[in-house]
Amino acid sequence: MIAVIVFLRLNRIDPAPDSERWERLMLDMAASKIDRQETAERLRKLVRGSVRS
Predict the structure, then answer these.
(1) How far apart are CA 3 and CA 49, in angstroms?
(2) Residues 3-47: pLDDT tens digits?
(3) The pLDDT value given to residue 35
(4) What is the band of 50 on the pLDDT scale with cuts at 50, 70, 90?
(5) Domain range holding 39?
(6) For residue 11, is it left (φ>0), alpha (ψ between -120 and 50) or beta?
(7) In angstroms, rounded to a whole number, what is the distance separating the alpha carbons of residues 51 and 33?
(8) CB-based burial of residue 47 (10 Å sphere; 0-12 exposed, 13-18 middle, 19+ buried)?
(9) Which of its termini does the chain have fewer beta carbons within 10 Å around, N or C?
(10) d(CA 28, CA 12)
């Protein structure tokens, strides 16, 4: 998850502050409850509108 956040910040995308949605995403990924597509969809929702100029 840290790698994801670093990647986003390097690409001028500031993720929203920690929230239950980030925690749930991390736990679901760690437990293999979601696949790559679901992970990507949830990440898109979490960072939508967070791009810096």
Answers:
(1) 20
(2) 888 888 898 888 777 678 888 999 999 999 999 999 999 988 888
(3) 97
(4) low
(5) 2-47
(6) alpha
(7) 28
(8) middle
(9) C
(10) 26
- Report the chain's terminal Cα–Cα distance, integer Å: 24
pLDDT score of 48 more than 80? no
For the chain, the domain total comes to: 1
Angle between helices 36-47 and 20-30 (to 10 degrees): 160
pTM of the model: 0.70
Query: In this structure, is residue 52 part of a structural domain?
Result: no
**Would you say residue 16 lies in a domain?**
yes
- With beta carbons less than 8 A apart as the criterion, state whether 4 and 42 touch: no
Give the closest residue to 15 by CA, choosing from 47, 49, 51, 48: 47
